[in-house]
Write a structure and sequence with these properties.
With 97 residues, this protein is mostly helical. The longest helix is centred in the middle third of the chain and has 19 residues. A two-stranded antiparallel ribbon has the order 1-2. The protein is elongated, with a radius of gyration of 19 Å. The termini are far apart. Helix 2 packs across helix 3.
């Protein structure tokens, strides 16, 4: 089966079930995944994340199939945490106290 055809048949619900199965090692009905099922499911989950979700998580697989890691600064910018709080007077590191 063609990868694009496979992805077009995957619904968000199927993706979510497969992701949970890979994370827990069990299908929703409680049956354990075989090693082959785990490997295949993991590949599909990563493929779906890269091609459909275009995931913005810290570490994921990019559309080109390469691992994408975001820096701490990039994550802060995406979450809006890079802007100083106008109500903050001073910031200290734990070691400074």
């Amino acid at each position: 089966m063609d990868i694009n055809a496979l992805l077009s048949t995957m619904t968000p619900e199927i993706y979510e079930r497969m992701r949970q199965a890979v994370e827990t090692g069990k299908w929703p009905d409680g049956k354990a995944l075989t090693e082959e099922q785990r490997d295949n499911s993991l590949q599909l989950v990563l493929l779906y994340q890269s091609k459909v979700l275009k995931s913005a998580e810290h570490m994921t697989i990019g559309e080109d199939g390469n691992i994408v890691q975001k820096s701490r600064q990039q994550l802060k910018q995406e979450m809006g945490l890079d802007k100083p709080d106008p109500n903050t007077i001073a910031r200290f590191k734990q070691d400074d106290i």
